[in-house]
Structure formats: structure tokens, C-alpha cells
Write a structure and sequence with these properties.
The chain is an alpha+beta fold and 169 residues long. The protein has one domain (2-167): Aminopeptidase. Helix content is 37%, strand content 27%. It has helices at residues 10-20, 40-48, 91-100, 116-124, 132-142, 147-151, 161-167, and strands at 2-4, 52-58, 61-71, 74-82, 107-112, 127-129, 153-158. Strands 1-2-3-4-5-7-6 form a seven-stranded mixed sheet, with helices on both faces. A hairpin with a 2-residue loop joins strand 2 and strand 3 (61-71).
Length: 169
């Protein structure tokens, strides 16, 4: 079941993010890795800044989370994580589809360029990488991230149905 999270879920969100982010260890630039990957203070700041977390719940337990944030004229998908032992079961795809359906704005996703599995996941679900120039412009306009993260990230944009049909022909 997918549901909006609330303040009582804060610790579970924190645990899911930091468990799942272990996949980035040794993959993303060492100067961007933190221990923990996302401290509680940063998670609280993200929520204060308007990231609304939704969770995938099974048997009363959150096992995946994904945030959505309206910024200007776009919607960002933020902090998409599934507990390590629950990966590969379609949970991330369900969350992504659900959250994408909540908006009629263009949907953008930023992720680490070297996290090829994440890029493939988003591409599988109808997103395509933008050009490097567009990526730099979008990250600086819509995200609050350090310049080093801009350098080492990609942005993916949701394709329209017409674009998806043309790509799959």
C-alpha cells in the first residue's frame, strides 16, 4: 500500500534512506559520501523545504520511500529508496508511477551519474537523461545542492507518451 508519510514515520524514513544509500558507497565521489549518508538534520531540512515523502507499506512496515517536491513550474522526485532486502520487487516502480501521477507538471529526477543502476531504473520507467548543458541549468535552477554535486549528477526528464512511442519504434 502506498501512503503519505507523517511525522511518526521520520525514523523509518531515515533508516530506509541510509540503508538503501549504502549502494552508493564507493560509487559516488568520495568527497560526496557522508556517514550517515543523510543525517537526521538534513532529512528534517528537506521536509521543511517542501519534500513530501510517500511510503510503500507492507504488513504495517514502511519498506520504501520517495519524495515529491513542487519547485517553480516543475515537480521533482527526491530521495527514492527501498530497503536493501526488498529491492527488485517493483516497489520503486510503483512509488514512481504513483508520484508521477500526482502532478501534471514536468517531472524531473536528479541522481548520481555513476549510479548506473539508478539511471537505468528511471529510464525503464519512461525518463530520459537531458543534455549535460540542460542538466547543469536545471540542477542550478531547481535544486539546492553544492556545485560538486552538479558536476557529478545527471537529470532525467519524464517523456511524454508521444516521445515514448517514438523511442520504442
Amino acid at each position: 500500500m502506498i501512503r503519505r508519510t507523517n511525522s511518526a514515520d521520520f525514523e523509518a524514513i531515515y533508516q530506509i534512506i541510509n540503508d538503501a544509500a549504502e549502494a552508493y558507497r564507493g560509487v559516488i565521489p568520495a568527497d560526496r559520501w557522508h556517514e550517515p549518508y543523510m543525517p537526521r538534520e538534513e532529512l528534517a531540512e528537506q521536509i521543511r523545504d517542501g519534500v513530501e515523502f510517500w511510503g510503500y507499506q507492507e504488513d504495517g512496515e514502511l519498506i520504501g520511500v520517495m519524495g515529491i517536491q513542487d519547485v517553480g513550474d516543475v515537480t521533482l522526485i527526491r530521495h527514492a529508496y527501498v530497503r536493501t532486502e526488498m529491492r527488485g520487487k517493483g516497489i520503486g516502480g510503483e512509488l514512481l508511477g504513483f508520484l508521477s501521477g500526482l502532478t501534471d507538471r514536468p517531472v524531473l529526477i536528479g541522481t548520481w551519474a555513476d549510479a548506473v543502476w539508478a539511471v537505468r531504473f528511471y529510464e525503464k520507467h519512461g525518463f530520459r537523461k537531458v543534455t549535460p548543458e540542460e542538466k547543469d541549468r536545471l540542477l542550478r535552477k531547481y535544486w539546492k545542492i553544492p556545485e560538486r554535486q552538479v558536476e557529478t549528477s545527471v537529470v532525467l526528464k519524464e517523456m511524454t507518451n508521444d516521445q515514448a512511442r517514438m523511442t520504442n519504434q
